[in-house]
UniProtKB/TrEMBL annotation:
<protein>
    <submittedName>
        <fullName>Phytanoyl-CoA dioxygenase family protein</fullName>
    </submittedName>
</protein>
<dbReference type="GO" id="GO:0051213">
    <property type="term" value="F:dioxygenase activity"/>
</dbReference>
<dbReference type="Pfam" id="PF05721">
    <property type="entry name" value="PhyH"/>
</dbReference>
<keyword id="KW-0560">Oxidoreductase</keyword>
<dbReference type="InterPro" id="IPR008775">
    <property type="entry name" value="Phytyl_CoA_dOase-like"/>
</dbReference>
<keyword id="KW-0223">Dioxygenase</keyword>
Length: 227
């Protein structure tokens, strides 16, 4: 027990997320404008998977971002990109949840996957917990996100519970942490970490680019289309 506590005290990822300040500089973020302009005006977000993702990842503004990402999270491949914007026209809230569904090439699911659904950008299915535990989401702060912007909130340590049923969530005690940050900050999260997002009380239009990563060798072994 003491050994376990000592190990977790030295593991900066132990809470299930890590907030990193000023990973990207302002010029790198400003260069993303054409990418982010593709978020529909009244919608919360825009997703890229499959061929569209390949095109996005090959675009010039993404190159400095991808180089830094490869240093932060080596030997991982990007499976999906999502851009979120929360403003006065799209001031959404998301109840607490885990991100358990990932893009899959077809309904012929790899072992351990289930709950396949068809999305406008392709198929997605719930991945097994052992795989999700190895995946990471990297959220890049394109704009400052203050407490008034309805920032992402996380429940530290909740990723260690594995798969959490929706009905169980209200019974889980803990202190929710708002992830507020400045342009160019980034947060790396386990997709199993419970997260939520409330409506903005004073929306300034915060945008986030989220890149969802899987260990490259797992992507290859499972035949998942990763770049
Ligand atoms: O950006 C947010 O506030 C919430 C996004 C979200 O729910 C998610 O990343 O799954």
């Amino acid at each position: 027990m003491e050994v376990a506590a000592a190990i977790s005290a030295t593991d900066p990822f132990d809470p299930g997320y890590r907030l990193l300040r000023r990973v990207f500089d302002r010029a790198e973020i400003t260069a993303l404008a054409p990418v982010l302009a593709r978020i529909p005006s009244s919608a919360a977000g825009r997703r890229w998977a499959g061929h569209e993702l390949v095109a996005l990842l090959q675009s010039p503004p993404m190159q400095p971002i991808l180089r830094k990402l490869a240093e932060l999270l080596p030997d991982m491949a990007i499976l999906r990109a999502v851009a979120f914007r929360k403003d006065a026209d799209a001031n959404w809230f998301v109840p607490a949840h885990q991100d358990r569904s990932i893009p899959v090439p077809s309904v012929a699911l790899p072992p351990g996957f289930d709950h396949v659904t068809r999305k406008p950008d392709g198929w997605q299915a719930e991945a097994p917990v052992a795989l999700l535990a190895k995946m990471r989401n990297c959220r890049i702060f394109v704009d400052r996100a203050t407490i008034e912007d309805g920032p992402l909130e996380v429940l530290p340590g909740s990723h260690r519970r594995g798969r959490i049923e929706q009905a169980e969530i209200p019974t889980i005690a803990g202190h929710w942490v708002p992830l507020i940050g400045e342009v160019g900050d980034a947060v790396i999260l386990s997709p199993l970490l419970l997260h939520r997002s409330r409506r903005a009380t004073d929306p300034s239009g915060r945008r986030v680019l989220q890149l969802e990563l899987i260990p490259s060798e797992m992507a290859e072994a499972l035949g998942l289309s990763a770049c």
